[in-house]
Design goal:
The protein is of the alpha/beta class and about 350 residues long. The chain has 2 domains: about 200 residues, Aldolase class I (TIM Barrel, Alpha-Beta Barrel), CATH 3.20.20; about 100 residues, no CATH class. About 45% of the residues lie in helices and about 10% in strands. It is built from 14 helices and 12 strands. The structure holds flavin mononucleotide (FMN).
Length: about 350
């Protein structure tokens, strides 16, 4: 397989996933020949620096980190990335040009994830060395353009290498993406459903049992389009009217005591605005502030019924939990079979 910009044996990225893409998962995916990204968007500055140092210690191969350039401590996270020879940085919303410049001056590959053509064009202008495009079927926060349409339109409009994400799980997908002109694929959900992923067993079981149709998008969970498994908890939020959402958000705030910027006055104001039917923002702010705790309920504490499970639709057709090594071996075998299929029309 031809060389890719990230230098991994295979052009397969294990993407960042909050509380999932730990140093252990990154070490396993990189050992299997992929390029792994450590998730730091949900970490404090201190935790992020520790995680970078730990990954540098246990991973035998180069790795990347994922964070938000607007998150507290972003500057120090960049310093730690430079000190620990991190090879690539992944980011998405609100990139900061000075940070991109600093990363590039230190030969760190800037590879943002984009979910729309206009963001791909902007990211290239801001200095991205490569892009991950995530189609709408992808897990977590996602756009509205399906992978096939986003991939082909981005390839027609940018000149940096592109990795395709959103719905990939096997070597046939890798071959398809490469046939299209992408440099490789990026997978989140598929790596989350591996033996080395730290997600508790009963939560992995809930992913195995999910149907494609039950993995859908709602904005009501944290204010942004978020693809998750529609368990009872998310179904309840998704079909809530403003009044119900207001009470769910208060209950959630009470439970997790993370009301964030919302003061008691704000809440009262929001209640009356909500009764007039013209303001959802405080309920949404409270929901968003509590969303990390709700995700951790499923992904860390192993309570899939009472928590939130971000997921790509691909979970609906994934039926086993292999080790990273076996997963990648199978992907490469399938890739070669797919290449044979392409020899005749
Ligand atoms: C559980 C979960 C958590 C995620 N957390 C993050 C994150 O912290 N940062 C990020 O940039 N993307 C995050 N994503 C998106 C993935 O990195 C990736 O782009 C997406 O899963 C690709 O689609 P796929 O699931 O179909 O492979 C998350 C996805 C999942 C499923």
């Amino acid at each position: 397989m031809s060389e890719n910009i990230l230098g991994s044996r295979y052009p397969i990225i294990q993407t960042a996933m909050g509380w999932v893409a730990t140093p252990q998962l990154v070490a396993a995916s990189t050992s299997a020949g992929c390029f792994g990204f450590l998730a730091l968007a949900t970490s404090s500055k201190e935790e992020a620096i520790e995680l970078i140092e730990e990954t540098a210690k246990i991973s035998s191969f180069p790795f990347g980190i994922n964070f938000h350039m607007f998150q507290p401590g972003a500057k120090e996270i960049i310093e730690a990335a430079i000190e620990n020879n991190v090879k690539a940085v992944s980011y998405s919303r609100s990139p900061i040009p000075q940070y991109i410049e600093k990363l590039k001056m230190n030969n760190i590959i800037c590879i943002p994830t984009v979910g729309a053509l206009k963001h791909a064009i902007k990211a290239e202008k801001l200095g991205a060395d490569a892009l991950v495009i995530q189609g709408s079927e992808g897990g977590g926060h996602t756009g509205s353009t399906p992978t096939t349409l986003l991939l082909s339109s981005v390839l027609e409009n940018v000149s940096v290498p592109v990795f395709a994400a959103g719905g990939f799980r096997d070597g046939y997908g890798l071959a398809a993406a490469k046939a299209w002109g992408a440099q490789g694929i990026a997978m989140g959900t598929r790596f989350m459903m591996t033996k080395e992923s730290p997600v508790p067993e009963n939560t992995k079981d809930a992913y195995l049992q999910a149907d494609i149709d039950e993995i859908s998008v709602t904005k009501k969970f944290d204010g942004l389009p978020h693809r998750l498994i529609f368990n009872k908890y998310i179904q309840n939020i998704d079909k809530s009217n403003p009044l119900k959402l207001f009470f769910i958000s208060l209950k959630s705030a009470w439970k997790y005591k993370q009301i964030s910027q919302a003061s008691f006055g704000d809440i009262v104001k929001s209640f009356f605005a909500m009764l007039r039917g013209d303001d959802l923002s405080i309920s949404q702010t409270i929901m968003a502030a509590n969303s990390p705790a709700v995700i951790q309920k499923a992904m860390v504490e192993g309570n899939p019924d009472q928590g939130a499970m971000p997921s790509g639709q691909v979970a609906g057709i994934i039926k086993e939990i292999p080790s990273c090594e076996n997963l990648v071996k199978e992907i490469i075998e399938q890739y070669h079979k797919a290449s044979e299929n392409l020899k005749t029309l």
